[in-house]
Target: Cyclic nucleotide-binding protein
Amino acid sequence: MEKARLPQVIQAFPCFAHVPLPAWSNNEIYVERFSPRLVMGEGHLFAHAAFVLEGKVRIHKISESGREITLYRVTRGGVCVLMMASILGELEYAASAELEEETELLLLPVKVFKQWLDEYKDVRQFIYSTMIKRMASVTTLMENIAFKPIDYRLAEFLLSCTTESDNQLLITHEAIAIELGTAREVVSRSLKEFESAGWIKLGRGRITNIDRTSLANHLKHL
Model:
């Protein structure tokens, strides 16, 4: 990797600060920029561990029936924990990864990554703490799908994507269904109920006039 890129890498990943300079001279360590696209699907075997320097990566699962759910997103300074589990367990990748915007990745050969994981405490702590935090968030997601009604999850989603000063959302019903792990028809039905209650206004590919106060009150009564 070019030494000139090292400050950018360490700024995004302070855990690499104690890796000595000569260790970065490996020609198989490099930074690459990718355009938005699906970069890998389930069953992939990794040759490199990827660390996000810029951009956004959506990690998702697709069922046998074709239904899709977003598990989480990885942004600057993050890693995909399912990728790490695949590398450390020498298993096939259990999800799919899609670049939602132009993304720059630091790519470490698996052999180098495992060596650094053993040798450098900061790298080890970063990876394990990231895995624990992400597993907790995925567990919460699964609990929400299993135990919370769709109108509760939909209201939460609308609140999380808007603010008091920006109460509209450019998104399709299909995209919301993917985020929530349900069918488009279910989302459309609940959105129409919200519109009938006067909490939102539906348009083609957009939701406007989102009444955040009413949605928050709705959550309290569910």
Summary: The longest helix spans residues 121-147. Helices lie at 6-12, 81-89, 110-119, 121-147, 150-160, 173-180, 184-196, 212-220. The chain has a mean pLDDT of 94. The longest strand covers residues 68-75.
